[in-house]
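Newbie here. two chains, one complex. Structure please?
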Amino acid sequence: MFESGEQMNFLKEHFKKILFFLTIFILIIMIGLSSIGRFEGADLGFIGNLIAGFQKLTYKTGNTLTNSFYSVQDIVKMREENIMLTESIYKLREQVRILENIINKSEALETEYEMRKNLTYDYVVGQVIAIDDSNWFSRFTIDKGENDGIRQNDIVIQAVKTDDGIVQIGLLGIVTQTSSDWAKVITLLDEGCKVSFKNIENDESGIVQGSIDGNVTGYFFNSKAGAEKGDNLVTSGIGEIYIPDIYIGDVKDVVKTTDASTLRIIVEPAVDFTKISRVYVLTK
Amino acid sequence: MKKLILMSSLIVIGFVFQTSFIGFFNYFKILPNIPLILLVIFAMLSDGVEGGVLGILTGILHDAMIYDVFGIYTLIYFIIGAVIGAFSDEMLRENKLVYSAVTGISTVVMHLLLFLILFFLRFRVHLAKSILPNILFETALNAVLVIFVLKFVIYIFDRFNVKA
């Protein structure tokens, strides 16, 4: 009886401390379970949707404000850009003519060209509503969720819509979690994002990954594989998460690793991650 | 209760502002952390329990709305809120420099805890040295900004007849 009384006194005296350490312990367990996918995390339900609504409104306001500021600045640059783009179009048209001429001479190439040209994806257009481009992570949230057909592991790209369908600009990331009306996306720049790639120039595959220092780096599966600056990288489709042939970016630099037998490539992503607003989610 | 509801509302507004507006001014990856600044102010004006609750609220918002690993920010903000709240009685609340110092220390602690957690989650944290200058600038920015946010908070408290 005396001992239980002492215990009660001890609990009363140290209640706050016990609560503090117990909460920390529970949260650590939650982090552990969540990191291995055993715990989905909190879906804030109605409150989450309400906050997402506010975020959408705030993001739009910020976007409009900065766009109007930049549009005034951009008027001066527009003329120069227009001349440059017109020249680029002539160059690209010439390139297309040459490539089509080559393709048409080979039946196999023509078939593949037609197949890829007519390849269409089901997609949902989403608007970024919140972004964390802080030092440690690179994530954003979009205003479309399960109600719009978005699922975990759907691919998110930047693209433009034309009369013939969407034309991809490049890979942005992947949907990590969905709620009814919004979804979380992890970008290619984030340490937690790993993508299997294929080098178009030599068909060699490997893995690229974002990092805390902001660089996207990668390595080849084949230690003898080489790469040159400017090589184009696309998703390989290995692992069945990423659809093949989504443009990732170019090789910016090639660095020999410490054991000198393998190469590490530094990738310049095709997308400017500081200017993302409207995104395309490829639904499976 | 009114005070807790007001503080919680301001934390939600601060979170929305941080994630959906302030990013447009992210030129050099140096941004203030408004939810952290608010949490420090509110924890200083509360006790350990209230500070912990507000910390959990701040963290849950981050974890639930942005990140896929649940609990990272909840743990960090809970520790910061609870510790500051527990020692708030012993601090000179009238001195604004104390708020600056506590905010600066909290920013550093937040990044240290992130470093530790990410280390255990097998992130390549050795690459974090490249973001050290950004963290230092953020610390300074938060320490300065807290003075203005504190003035705003006191103004809001007055408007709602809440005792700071």
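Moderator note: The CA atoms of residues 123 and 282 of chain A lie 4 Å apart. Chain A touches chain B through 53 residues (CB under 8 Å). Thread marked as resolved.
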